[in-house]
Specification:
Blueprint lengths: L8 H8 L18 E5 L5 E4 L3 E2 L7 E2 L8 E6 L6 E6 L5 E6 L10 E4 L4 E5 L1
Antiparallel strand pairs: 1-2, 1-9, 3-4, 4-8, 5-6, 6-7, 7-8
This protein binds zinc ion (ZN).
The site of zinc ion has 8 residues, from loops.
Length: 123
């Protein structure tokens, strides 16, 4: 687990203050390698390349977390929108949001996650 002062300013802004990185700027938007995406703050396994898909939104998108036990879903009504926030259950880092416009054949969910909150470990 990293301490807040060890986080990069961008990671601190997103993970600790609920910010959002600019679309198409994140490291993992177009990453197609096989592996696991861990929490950049605490190292918990969050997402797998198996469920990553190209959503065209500019953020890494997944149909499912590795384990629903590893994430917490919270109602978020900021910015006048009703959204569901995705938070790392282990360390409380804000990761992104989940929407209902994912691929229907994979359950219809789209976990829209900020690259900066993820740490990719290649298989
Ligand atoms: Zn975490």
């Amino acid at each position: 687990m990293k301490k807040d002062e060890e986080l990069s300013p961008e990671l601190r802004r997103v993970a600790r203050e609920g910010g959002t990185e600019m679309p198409f700027t994140g490291t993992y938007v177009n990453n197609h390698e096989n592996g696991t995406y861990k929490c950049a703050v605490c190292g918990a396994e969050l997402f797998s390349s198996d469920t990553k898909f190209d959503s065209g939104t500019g953020w890494p998108s997944f149909t499912d977390p590795v384990n629903l036990e590893h994430v917490e879903l919270k109602q978020d009504t900021s910015l006048g929108m009703a959204r569901t926030e995705v938070v790392c259950k282990t360390c409380g880092a804000h990761l992104g949001h989940v929407f209902d416009d994912g691929p229907a054949e994979a359950g219809g969910k789209r976990y829209c996650i900020n690259s900066v909150c993820l740490d990719f470990k290649k298989k």
